[in-house]
Input
Amino acid sequence: MKIHEYQAKDLFRKAQVPVLQGFVAKTPEEAKAAFEKLGGPIAVVKAQVHAGGRGKGTVIEVPTQRGVQLVKSGDEAAAVAKNLINNQLVTIQTGPSGSKVNQVFVEEGCKIARELYLAVVVDRGSSMPLLMVSSEGGMDIEKVAEESPEKILKESFDPAYGLQGFQVRKLCKKLGISGDTAKHADFFMKKICKLFVDLDCSMVEINPLVITADNTLIALDGKVTFDDNAMFRHADLKLLRDLNEEEPAETRAGNTGLSYVKLEGNIGCLVNGAGLAMATMDIIKHHGGAPANFLDVGGGANTQQVTEAFRIILSDPNVKAILVNIFGGIARCTTIAQAIIEASKEVGFTVPLVVRLEGTEVNEGKKMLKDSGLAIISADDLTDAAKKVVASIA
Amino acid sequence: MSILVNRETRVICQGITGKAGAFHTKGCKEYGTKMVGGVTPGKSGETVEGLPVFDTVEEAVKQTGANASMIFVPPAFTADAILEAIDAGIGVICAITEGVPVIDMVHVYDKVRRSNSILIGPNCPGVITPGECKIGIMPGYIHNVGKVGIMSRSGTLTYEAVWQTSSLNLGQSTCVGLGGDPIVGTSYIDLFKRYQDDDQTEVILMIGEIGGDAEEQAAAYVKSHVTKPVAAFIAGRTAPPGKRMGHAGAIITGGKGTAAEKVAALEAAGIVVSQSPADMGKAVVEAIRRGK
Output
């Protein structure tokens, strides 16, 4: 689960991670009031969307407007807010249609001496949380990682004991940070690593992490993603979810216990198991087609879930055919066959449907489909299924 | 022989009184697995499928001589259950449970690596030595006794591979589902070591997926340490970056963990890589033909 920058900064503040003062604004008037409340000569107005790359992003309706802008008056803050709110911001992470801006964050300015990059993730190699820091703050960090990986410094830490002092000293030495700034860095980095563990994050990214003219460290940005599996123990964090930022079909699938990811192609896929679902997408592509989605109905799929899965797939106007690929293990082929029959009554298939069943109760399942009289193209194996579904829309 | 489990393995189920625990205990027992009991705190004295239920794993081990466990407890209690199994000296622990918080697994991973136990999973189908012992949720009947060692991060894709090899009359030595989470107890490399030392296993099939660099590390290991033929498949060639494909582990981040990178690393290690998921069985046959 992702959250907005202003929400991340609230959490930072509670965890004693230094941030600047700022206010959320949903209207130009609120943005102006926020500027005046901050009382400084400058402020920064920042579009609040989950996607990164806002600073270089542009607004579709007002092409000259970027997603982040420095302002020097309340009126200017209001004008920028007007350009952003209710408009579509396109960044490298949003895709061409952009992401709708519902609110902006108006934040005080500060004197920046240096910009760093900081992130915490769970590293699969060491099976430990990993702090990454780089002197190349404010830059496209993926480019840094690719071109000069030695500029990304890494320290893994045990969540039970947290980041240790010597680890911060190592990092500071390599970053050329000393004196009071190093003391601030020790405080900052230990706190952010603690927050990562305490809140069950899967990623915390601060780009840039700035060193100010008076040698303190401040999180100028904040991107936080939580581990969905741990949300059962964070009722307070669940409230931070913003459904406006999610693909509606993906939210709907999640509510039914399905795993769905929308893609750009035109062949809808309904599969049991994540690995087999990925492999099904792959084989469609291998035979010249393009998958419209990833959809895993899971191991214990019931009729209701499968019917909802069909509804979600068919709600995508790009879908021209559907491939069902089930390897029955715990999920029985008869259950899936029954669900297909019921879904066809309820949803009605307007596009060709290719079904490949294998595994538990396969013969009974195939017979049920045959006896149903539905116009189903049945397939014997993966290759056969992929070829038939691609041919059905050729 | 086989790896990890065989007809002598004595298995308990943690969470045996739950719906899934009871259902799969029955399935494993019917397959021929030596199920000897189960554990649910507060339910000692009850029986499930004719097996005794105990309050603690320690007690279950003492009374039944169990040396393997199948875990079906809910995600919030899975770390606790695994740690209890380690504490009781269980040799092979299979955590089937899906949805365990990653931070919990950081603690568990550290503990299990410093113990004599082996953890398979979490979020996995389990482990099976055909004809001898099935611990987990896989459909037993698709397996045949044979010579292919199969390991995978995905459940149903493993069934697909088993099906293909069975259809080619190859059969399997032991099949292991490693689990789809970012942190799991056992790596491909751990199992390559065991398959390499196992007489029954003549060829190894590794099924990977996008995300992380476990497949690349395995490829490097195979190049220098494995003398048996190896075949592989990587799922997720068409997955877009930044989107999580069902498994918590299957996500391409920062341009790393793509299928293309993994396939290149595997091929460079002399591994036969199946281009299509329909050809995993054929890739195994090709690996045998080429030898090593």
Chain B touches chain A through 61 residues (CB under 8 Å). The radius of gyration of chain B is 18 Å. DSSP finds nine helices and 14 strands in chain B. Residues 244 and 251 of chain B are 5 Å apart (CA to CA).
